[in-house]
Structures are given as C-alpha cells and as structure tokens.
Design goal:
This protein is an all-alpha fold and 67 residues long. It has helices spanning 2-10, 17-30, 38-53.
C-alpha cells in the first residue's frame, strides 16, 4: 500500500480517489508513524536489545549414576 501511494505521488500510477483512500487507511495498520511510541517505549526497546546480549546461562545438568 505504501508503494502504491509513493507511485501515485510520483505520478507513475493513475489511481482512483477510492483506491487512494483505501491505501491510506491500510497503511495506518502496516506502518507506524515516527511520532508514535514515545520515550518510554524507545527506552524499553533499547533495554531489551542490551539485555539480550547478557542472556542467562543454562543450569548444569545433573547426572545420577546409581551403580
């Protein structure tokens, strides 16, 4: 949908007004605006990226040998 809107803006495609309105409505669900999210979400995303580098190690396996 975003590609269609870009082509319409550049004059490469001649779309009807209904098609343009439908594409605008669909783009809202597939692409987030730059302003959406906020500082808290950006900070949380950054913290999750850093935390993934320091993943917890697996616990040791205990083997029982009763012979």
């Amino acid at each position: 949908m975003l590609e269609l809107l870009q082509r319409v803006a550049l004059g490469l495609v001649d779309a009807s007004p209904i098609q343009v309105r439908a594409a605008i409505a669909a783009v809202q669900y597939t692409h987030a605006k730059k302003g959406e999210g906020g500082k808290k979400e950006a900070r949380q995303d950054q913290a999750e990226r850093v935390a993934s580098k320091f993943a917890a190690a697996a616990p040791p396996k205990l083997v029982v040998n009763n012979r």
